[in-house]
Design brief:
about 230 residues; Alpha/beta knot; Trp Operon Repressor, Chain A; five-stranded parallel β-sheet; two-stranded antiparallel sheet; 9 helices; binds adenine
């Protein structure tokens, strides 16, 4: 999978892809994340990529021209499955969407900044708009990192134990059950006996019951989804 992220702040995105699972994914050649500095497509030598909004009001808007030039160039190089704009008014991101999109190959992800991007780029280029939650971030970069992480870890071969993504919270509309590691007794709190029993089938049942109970208590809304 290849994810080309267009941003005015590439530095902000360097770290999330240089560690741990996403770093391994890139070293194995399974996930390639490219950070593209929008200022390389600025309208002048001063690096201008944004301007005041028509009609007045606070906040700058990313201009059409640099974004169009940048996307046009990328699209001459390969076919993209989607041109995604990260925005609080997009479709809410969830595990189901991550699963579906993890089967695709190439994405362009546009990070908005300030007041966002010119509406005409959304009309002409953007094929999918994604929100990572009902709150406003100061830019799309952290949202793009969330998107790339959620998809990247699903690619076959990225996680060591391939089954572990399948037992994540949300994968079957249930939250994950509690987990424990050594010691068996910590400040009087003991690991449930069943987990020490070595009885695989019973452990599986216990985990399912715990997951169901946790979901009922914390996120009953998930149980009503099909
Ligand atoms: N950009 C700013 N806020 C955002 C959000 N909640 N989701 C996606 N992109 C954003």
């Amino acid at each position: 999978m290849r994810i080309d992220i267009i941003t005015v702040l590439p530095e902000l995105l360097e770290s999330p892809f240089s560690h741990s699972i996403l770093k391994r994914a890139s070293q194995k050649g399974l996930l390639q994340v490219n950070l593209i500095n929008l200022r390389d497509y600025a309208i002048n030598k001063y690096g201008t990529v944004d301007d005041y909004q028509y009609g007045g009001g606070a906040g700058m808007v990313l201009m059409c021209e640099p974004l169009a030039k940048c996307i046009d160039k990328l699209e001459t190089e390969r076919d993209y499955d989607d041109v995604i704009y990260m925005t609080p008014d997009g479709t809410p991101f969830n595990q189901k969407m991550a699963n579906t999109l993890s089967l695709k190959q190439n994405f362009i992800v546009i990070c908005g900044h300030y007041k966002g991007i010119d509406e005409r780029i959304r009309q002409l280029y953007v094929t999918r708009e994604i929100s990572i939650g009902d709150y406003v971030l100061s830019g799309g970069e952290l949202a793009a990192a969330v998107f790339a992480d959620a998809l990247g870890r699903l690619l076959p071969g990225v996680l060591n134990d391939e089954t572990s993504a399948l037992s994540d919270s949300f994968q079957d509309s249930l939250l994950a059950p509690p987990v424990y590691t050594r010691p068996e007794n910590f400040r009087g709190l003991k690991v449930p006996d069943i987990l020490l029993s070595g009885h695989e089938a019973k452990i599986k049942d216990w985990r399912y019951e715990q997951a169901l109970e946790r979901t009922k208590q914390r996120r009953p809304d998930l149980l009503n989804e099909e």
